[in-house]
Write a structure and sequence with these properties.
Layout: H1 2-6, H2 19-34, H3 46-51, H4 86-99, H5 104-131, H6 146-157, H7 163-167, H8 172-191, H9 203-219, H10 226-238, H11 243-251, H12 266-290, H13 310-329, H14 355-373, H15 377-391, H16 416-434, H17 438-462, H18 466-474, H19 481-493, H20 497-510, H21 515-527, H22 531-544, H23 549-561, H24 565-578, H25 583-595, H26 599-612, H27 617-629, H28 633-646, H29 651-663, H30 667-680, H31 685-698, H32 701-714, H33 719-739
Pfam family, one: TPR_8
Family: Belongs to the TMTC family.
GO molecular function, one term: dolichyl-phosphate-mannose-protein mannosyltransferase activity
Length: about 750
């Protein structure tokens, strides 16, 4: 190995080689690459996994984390994503608690530090994989590949494909999974300290390694694959399995075909048995936890897996592998989402894109031949371990064992990229050995590191806000309906409805079955009073997806606006049928009943909304106002007091209850609530106007005049306030005449 490592002398200076300095340099570079993302927002999937995830809040029992998926849904639910990562969610919860709420910076800083930690650990991992496992007489592990291990770790630290994992907070699952994956591997290496003496090892360290593998799996499902890497390393490095020798014995029938030494090594077989039992136990536990079986993905998530022809599926899966390989080789075109038409399906072998998987397999077969048949034993071992580190962690995302919910996912390349960096380092070492222009190779490596670092900084900046992230994808995946949908949604949230409509329409054009785009577009058209088209879109959405509760509710709102009350009621009822706990739908159903003067039904609907969502201010307000308008002042007062106990800082509830108390001649208490509401929302003209009415009734005419004038200053068009102010002025004039 010394000769291989010496080939990199021009690339990695000797001053970097001491372990402390090597790790310091790698850690520093890894932090610099992604430091730009530290003050970013919660973007894309962060909203669902963090901001809207009740498992992060203190009121949710910690035990619920073990029964919920990554997004906070119960694993037993048919709608669950089945992504079981309780330890990752636990770190989110700790972040939330320690930072005192949803402050993105604290979440981002943890991710950046985790990537730094993984990059530093890889210095040790690469030193073992590239240099072998040897110890001094005092039990200290020798680093026989100091240059190549540092270079491989640097290439990993600055790889732009990692941006999604580091800059996107949900990527913490991959970071934590990788961290414990590497710790498990290093723990397994500890177990093999004495393994060169046949049959000896530390069973405790083997078991600890398996335990760390289980922890990695509880952070991200990919973590279980460390057991496969441990097994390959044990067989090749410790068992010294020589595949070339076995092949030669098989091909030359004249030679005696004895059992390989691996099969006679009792210690190795025992360790393989422990790894196999550990892996089987993890898979069984995972299967039991999933409960209702694998998640149900749709065709737009992974179109190749829904193809009828096995040949079409195989071609497209291999094309996806080639795209992943290209992202590792040239990580310039990166996208937050590769689904929904971003990569059109290959439907025949006549498609020119089949060249990509052919090129991939040409390279892989070449590497595999070298890994198995090279006469250089060190080269065989390095290439085999590099391919193992590249392929084994990728297997869960390969579609080979089960359908996955994506076409290409940059986050799935976080661990496999370590294998790629290892192979690239070997290639650079071989290139350096073959040429006399060492400085040119050094310049090439420095150029790769610099360009990748620059790309990481640029991409980290794009991940800071949703607007930049979504727009960056338009040039990479212009055929991706989800990209256009997300740009439109972001514009709609900012109030730019005209531009949002344009992107929503493009999303629907690219994917005519995109029900979420139809629903959002229908909502905007409803707000713009374009009710006929809104109804058509929402009707089509529920026709495509009959259990789409939100679309049913929005269809009901449109039908209510069109005075088609019976159809609206039916739509609301259908929405509630598909989503039983739907407070907003109960609220809108109550509004429908109020329009039809079905007061009891309206009150019941609003009461259901507040039971399901006690902080539903609009439902409480409507109950108070309806009871007030129908003369049930005592009941209105009781409901108002109940609401304020649950939502004590809601100024609209203070205002509604103050109106009721004023009518009940409880002037002092009414005044206090009006003033409190005005303090919270001083520019509400109606608050000042109604307080003026209270003072008018109460006989505090000067105060009434003051608040009438404030109200009219805020809203000069309020006819009721104008009329009351006129009455007050005439009364004040009459009083002045009497005084005269």
């Amino acid at each position: 190995m010394a000769e291989w490592d010496a080939d990199l002398d021009y690339i990695v200076p000797s001053s970097v080689l001491p372990p402390f300095w090597a790790k310091l340099v790698v850690g520093f570079v890894s932090l610099v690459c992604f430091a730009r993302s530290y003050d970013g927002d919660f973007v894309f999937d962060d909203s669902e996994a963090i901001v809207n995830n009740k498992d992060l809040r203190a009121e949710t029992p910690l035990g619920d984390l073990w029964h919920h998926d990554f997004w906070g849904s119960r694993l037993s639910s048919n709608t669950s994503h089945k992504s079981y990562r309780p330890l990752t969610v636990l770190t989110f919860r700790m972040n939330y608690y320690l930072s005192g709420g949803f402050h993105p910076a604290s979440f981002h800083v943890v991710n950046i530090l985790l990537h730094g930690g993984v990059s530093v650990l890889l210095v040790d991992v690469f030193s073992v994989l590239l240099g072998g496992l040897q110890y001094t007489s005092k039990g200290r592990r020798l680093n026989l590949a100091p240059r190549s291990s540092v270079l491989a770790a640097l290439l990993f630290a600055v790889h732009p494909v990692h941006t999604e994992c580091v800059a996107g907070v949900v990527g913490r699952a991959d970071l934590l999974g990788a961290l414990f994956f590497l710790l498990s591997f290093l723990g397994y290496c500890k177990a093999l300290r004495e393994a060169n003496k046949e049959g000896t090892h530390s069973t405790c360290w083997v078991l600890l390694s398996i335990l760390l593998g289980a922890v990695a799996m509880l952070c991200k499902e990919q973590g279980i694959t460390v057991l496969g890497l441990n097994a390959v390393f044990d067989i090749l490095v410790i068992g010294k399995l020589n595949v070339l020798e076995i092949v030669q014995k098989v091909l030359h029938k004249g030679r005696s075909l004895e059992n390989p030494g691996v099969l006679r090594n009792g210690g190795l077989l025992f360790r393989m048995a422990l790894l196999a039992l550990g892996g089987a136990g993890m898979l069984f536990a995972r299967w039991r936890i999933m409960g209702t079986g694998p998640p149900a993905f749709t065709e737009v998530d992974n179109p190749a897996s829904f193809a009828d022809s096995m040949l079409v599926r195989a071609i497209n899966y291999n094309y996806y592998y080639s795209l992943n390989a290209w992202l590792l080789l040239c990580p310039w075109w990166l996208c937050f989402d590769w689904s929904m038409g971003c990569i059109p399906l290959i439907k025949s072998v006549g498609d020119w894109r089949v060249i990509a998987p052919a090129a991939l397999w040409f390279c892989l077969i070449g590497l595999i031949c070298q890994a198995l048949c090279s006469e250089d034993s060190h080269k065989r071992r390095i290439l085999t371990l590099g391919l193992g580190f590249l392929i084994i962690p990728f297997l869960p995302a390969s579609n080979l064992f089960f359908r996955v919910g994506f076409v290409v996912a940059e986050r799935a390349l976080y661990l496999p990229s370590a294998g790629y960096c290892m192979l690239l380092t070997c290639g650079l070492g071989a290139l350096s050995r073959l040429t006399k222009r060492k400085k040119l190779i050094a310049a090439l490596v420095l150029g790769i590191l610099f360009i990748n670092t620059l790309r990481c900084v640029i991409r980290s900046d794009e991940w800071r806000t949703e607007d930049q992230l979504f727009r960056s994808a338009l040039s990479v995946c212009p055929l991706n309906a989800k990209v256009h949908y997300n740009v439109g949604k972001n514009l709609a949230d900012k109030g730019n409805q005209t531009a949002a409509i344009r992107y929503y329409r493009e999303a629907v054009r690219l994917n005519p079955k995109y029900v979420h785009a139809m629903n959002n577009l229908g909502n905007i058209l409803k707000e713009r009073n374009e009710l006929q088209e809104a109804e058509q879109l929402l009707s089509l959405a529920v026709q495509i997806q009959p259990d789409f509760a939100a679309a049913w509710m929005n269809l009901g709102i449109v039908q209510n606006s069109l005075k088609r009350f019976q159809a609206a009621e039916q739509s609301y009822r259908t929405a509630i049928k598909h989503r039983r706990k739907y407070p907003d739908c109960y609220y809108n159903l109550g509004r429908l009943y109020a329009d039809l003067n079905r007061h009891v039904d309206a009150l019941n609907a609003w009461r259901n909304a507040t039971v399901l969502k006690p902080e539903h201010s609009l439902a409480w307000n409507n109950m108070i106002i309806l009871l007030d308008n129908t003369g049930n002042l005592a009941q209105a007062e009781a409901v108002g007091r109940e609401a304020l106990e649950l939502i004590p800082d809601d100024h609209s509830l203070m205002f509604s209850l103050a109106n009721v108390l004023g009518k009940s001649q409880k002037y002092k208490e009414s005044e206090a609530l009006f003033l409190k509401a005005i303090k919270a929302h001083p520019n509400a003209a109606s608050y000042h106007g109604n307080l003026a009415v209270l003072y008018h009734r109460w006989g505090h005419l000067d105060l009434a005049k003051k608040h009438y004038e404030i109200s009219l200053h805020l809203d000069p068009t309020a006819s009721g306030t104008k009329e009351n102010y006129g009455l007050l002025r005439r009364k004040l004039e009459q009083m002045q005449k009497k005084d005269v």
